[in-house]
Design goal:
The complex is a heterodimer. A three-stranded antiparallel beta sheet of chain A has the order 1-3-2. The radius of gyration of chain A is 17 Å and the shape is elongated. Chain A has a single domain, classed as Multidrug-efflux Transporter Regulator, Chain: A, Domain 2. In chain A, strand 2 and strand 3 form a beta hairpin. By secondary structure, chain A is mainly α. Chain A contains four helices and three strands, in the order E-H-H-E-E-H-H. By secondary structure, chain B is α+β, with helices and mostly antiparallel strands. In chain B, about 30% of the residues lie in helices and about 25% in strands. Chain B is built from eight helices and 13 strands. A five-stranded mixed beta sheet of chain B has the order 1-2-3-7-6, with no helix packed on it. In chain B, helix 2 runs antiparallel to helix 3 and helix 5 crosses helix 6. Chain B is elongated and about 95 Å long. The chains are: A mainly alpha, B alpha+beta. At the A-B interface, helix 1, helix 3 and helix 4 of A face helix 2 and strand 8 of B.
């Protein structure tokens, strides 16, 4: 992996105005992965869209990390169900 | 352009305190926030309305102006200012027949807002500019016909002046989205760029119905051939083929033509099947001779 694919947790938090503890709680709740590099703990850029979504929920809607974990779980279910509905709709179209 | 009653949008009284407005906004934002309502266009629209109402009512200056002018907001001067602001701040664009919109569209405000307050501010929930690090994701829709995606295609798109070479694998589904990493908006202060998401809209203008790699079609079989058996010619996606119809074929019988379906997505050289449903065609407008023959058949007690 190239070095630029990682961002330090410190940089991310400074930029978004959140405490590092928020990122670690997301890691603890298994919402995202944290990479242990020799000098500091880093985030892979692939994790950023998800983490930024969690920061928005935290900052804009005052949702605490426990609530975010529940939302993350339910959103996963919603997305799976949406995919299933879309696939079923396609099948229905075939029968029409 | 219609007047928007921001108090009604937030469901608060005209004399509502800042605290009451904040509370009402938070309550509605939790209901309609795009992050909590994936792929819900209606919720996104509602969120924009709520956000705009909050932008005005949570800012004492804007609220004062809104209360003062009320329904008489349409002053020529403001209108001109808004027009100028709009032309400078267009957030959407076209590229080579494709349209895209930025992911952060929740900050678009109505024409009413722009005409009254001149342009849009990126404020969010009264907390000032939304902080960004990673660039915005872009969403684009690409319309192709079913036959376009029968073979793998290479296309070049131009997004924000940059050319992107895109390989569209054969067999892509209608509504399927592919991600092109790093081709969204630029990052801020060294942040990574966002991604470009292309959703495919596949227009099926063929006579075949498609379900994944399998194709379906109903074909007519003349009555005599259904009874006695014979040969018919049917269209497949790649040309005509001759088919043997077994004697005594029922109406609604289905046959499978293996490998005559659609390419399997990302499985080069593999194809789905074509399912044909036979529809026995009962002849109309018989000649006198044909009618007599059917009558003769009837006398044989054929059932």
């Amino acid at each position: 992996m190239k070095k630029e694919n990682y961002i330090s947790i410190e940089t991310f938090c400074k930029r978004h105005g959140v405490g590092e503890s928020f990122v670690y709680s997301m890691y603890e709740y298994e919402i995202l992965q944290v990479e242990n590099k020799p000098d500091k703990r880093m985030l892979h850029v692939e994790e950023l869209p998800l983490l930024e979504k969690m920061v928005r929920l935290h900052n804009e809607l005052d949702i605490n990390p426990e609530g975010i974990q529940a939302i993350h779980h339910l959103l996963g279910q919603v997305e799976n169900l949406q995919e299933e509905v879309a696939a079923l709709k396609r099948k229905l179209d075939v029968l029409k | 352009m219609d007047f928007i009653d921001y108090y009604k949008v937030l469901g608060v009284d005209k004399k509502a305190s800042t605290e009451e407005i904040k509370k009402a906004y938070r309550k509605l934002a939790r209901k309609y926030h795009p992050d909590l309502n994936p792929n819900d266009v209606e919720a996104e629209k509602n969120f924009k309305r709520v956000n705009e109402a909050n932008e005005v009512l949570s800012d004492p200056e804007k609220r004062k102006k809104y209360d003062e002018y009320g329904k008489d907001w349409q002053h020529a001067e403001e209108f001109e200012k808004a027009k100028r602001a709009r032309s400078q701040q267009s957030g959407q664009g076209d590229f080579g027949g494709y349209t895209y919109s930025s992911g952060g569209s929740a900050q678009d405000f109505s024409d009413f807002f722009e005409s009254m307050f001149g342009g849009r501010s990126a404020g969010f929930g009264g907390r000032g500019q939304r902080v960004r690090f990673r660039g915005q994701d872009y969403n684009a829709e690409l319309k192709l016909s079913l036959m376009d995606v029968y073979t793998t295609q290479k296309q070049t798109l131009t997004v924000n002046g940059k050319n992107i070479r895109l390989t569209i694998p054969a067999g892509i589904e209608d509504g399927q989205t592919i991600k092109i990493s790093g081709h969204g908006g630029p990052g801020v202060e060294g942040g990574p760029a966002g991604d470009l998401y292309i959703t495919f809209s596949i227009v099926n203008n063929t006579s075949f119905r498609r379900d994944g790699p399998n194709l379906y079609k109903t074909v007519e079989v003349p009555l005599v051939k259904a009874v006695l058996g014979g040969e018919i010619q049917v269209e497949t996606l790649t040309g005509k083929v001759k088919l043997k119809v077994a004697p005594g074929t029922d109406n609604g019988a289905q046959v499978k033509l293996k490998g005559k379906g659609f390419p399997k997505y990302k499985k080069e050289g593999q194809f789905g099947d074509l399912y044909l449903t036979y529809q026995v065609k009962v002849p109309k407008n018989l000649t006198t001779e044909q009618k007599e023959l059917f009558e003769a058949l009837e006398k044989t007690n054929l059932k």
